[in-house]
Write a structure and sequence with these properties.
Blueprint (H helix, E strand, L loop, with lengths): L3 E7 L5 E6 L2 H10 L14 E8 L2 H12 L3 H8 L3 H8 L18
Antiparallel strand pairs: 1-2, 1-3
Helix pairs in contact: 3-4
Length: 109
């Protein structure tokens, strides 16, 4: 059974890169060697692995990668820090609450 990984890298400019692979160690090495000068991470090295999850179903892994790529920075940071309360809060539809999210619980830690 194959294993697939969805991962988040922190770049030297503090941005995040989300990716998918079937060989995490090899892919991290490729990112840090950066042979493709047009790649997002090329000018953002060194890169640090800050989160990953393993999957047995390739379609599930690809779906999760696409989902995370669409997330806000603060939602990715809640995932990375395993702050499930903030992850749930940031997952709520902002407009459904008329923009009345309690900001005291969303400040940076």
């Amino acid at each position: 059974m194959k294993t697939y990984f969805v991962y988040i890298l922190k770049c030297n400019d503090e941005s995040y890169y989300t990716g998918f692979t079937n060989d995490l160690e090899r892919r991290l090495e490729e990112h840090n060697q950066s042979l493709n000068k047009k790649a997002y991470t090329h000018d953002k090295r060194p890169l640090t692995l800050v989160w990953f999850e393993t999957f047995n179903d390739v379609n599930n892994a690809i779906s999760i990668e696409k989902q995370i790529k669409g997330w806000s920075r603060r939602k990715k940071e809640a995932l990375i820090s395993e702050n499930w309360d903030k992850l749930i809060l940031y997952s709520k539809n902002y407009t459904q609450f008329g923009g009345n999210i309690d900001r005291s619980s969303t400040s940076s830690d």
